[in-house]
Specification:
Elements: E1 2-7, H1 13-24, E2 30-34, H2 35-38, H3 48-62, E3 67-73, E4 78-85, E5 90-94, E6 109-114, H4 117-128, H5 133-150, H6 152-155, E7 158-161
Parallel strand pairs: 1-5, 1-6, 2-5, 6-7
Antiparallel strand pairs: 3-4
Helix pairs in contact: 4-5
C-alpha cells in the first residue's frame, strides 16, 4: 500500500508521517520517504528528476523490490549518501510533491494538509534557520506553481488542517 502526504511547506507532513509510522509499525512493515531526500537542491526540487525518482520508487514497491537512489545533502548542497527504500507493506511518501499526478493512480490513499504558506514559512524558518529565507521564498513560488499544475489538493481524499 502507498500513502502520500502533501501540502505546503511547514504544514506538518513529516510529523503526521512519523506519527502514522509509529502507529502501524507493530502491525506491518512501514517506510517513510521524505521528499526533502529526493529533491535535487533548491532550484530543481519539484522538477522532472523528482518525478522520475517517485515513479521508480512506486514501481519498485509494486514489484516488492527495494529502490536505491542518492539522498540530497542539504548541508553541503550536493548529492549525498545512498538512500535504500526496502519493500514494505505500507510506504508513506511525504513532502511537497509527494502527491503528484505521475504516481497518483498507484497510490491508495492521498492526504493533503492545508496551511497558509506564510504560516508554513514561519515554521520552516523557526525549525531550519533564517539563513534559508531567500531559498524558501523562491521554493514557495515553485510550490504554488506545482500545486496549481498538478491539482494536488483536489486529488486528495483526505484534507487536514495544519494548524495546531
Amino acid at each position: 500500500m502507498i500513502l502520500t502526504i502533501d501540502g505546503t511547506a511547514g504544514a506538518g507532513k513529516t510529523t503526521l508521517a512519523e506519527y502514522m509510522c509509529e502507529q502501524y509499525k507493530d502491525q506491518m512493515s512501514v517506510a517513510v520517504v521524505h521528499m526533502d531526500d529526493l529533491y535535487d537542491g533548491w532550484d530543481d526540487a519539484l522538477g522532472p528528476k523528482l518525478t522520475l525518482k517517485l515513479e521508480g520508487i512506486v514501481s519498485a514497491h509494486k514489484s516488492g523490490e527495494e529502490f536505491r537512489t542518492t539522498a540530497f545533502d542539504w548541508k553541503r548542497n550536493e548529492p549525498g549518501s545512498e538512500l535504500v527504500i526496502p519493500p514494505v507493506d505500507l510506504l508513506i511518501l511525504e513532502g511537497v510533491g509527494a502527491g503528484q499526478s505521475a504516481i497518483r493512480d498507484a497510490v491508495e490513499t492521498k492526504i493533503w494538509i492545508d496551511l497558509e504558506p506564510i504560516v508554513g514559512l514561519r515554521r520552516v524558518l523557526a525549525r531550519d534557520g533564517h539563513n534559508i529565507e531567500e531559498q524558501m521564498l523562491a521554493f514557495l513560488e515553485l510550490e504554488r506553481i506545482h500545486f496549481l499544475k498538478e491539482g494536488t489538493r483536489d486529488a486528495a481524499e483526505f484534507h487536514l488542517n495544519g494548524l495546531n
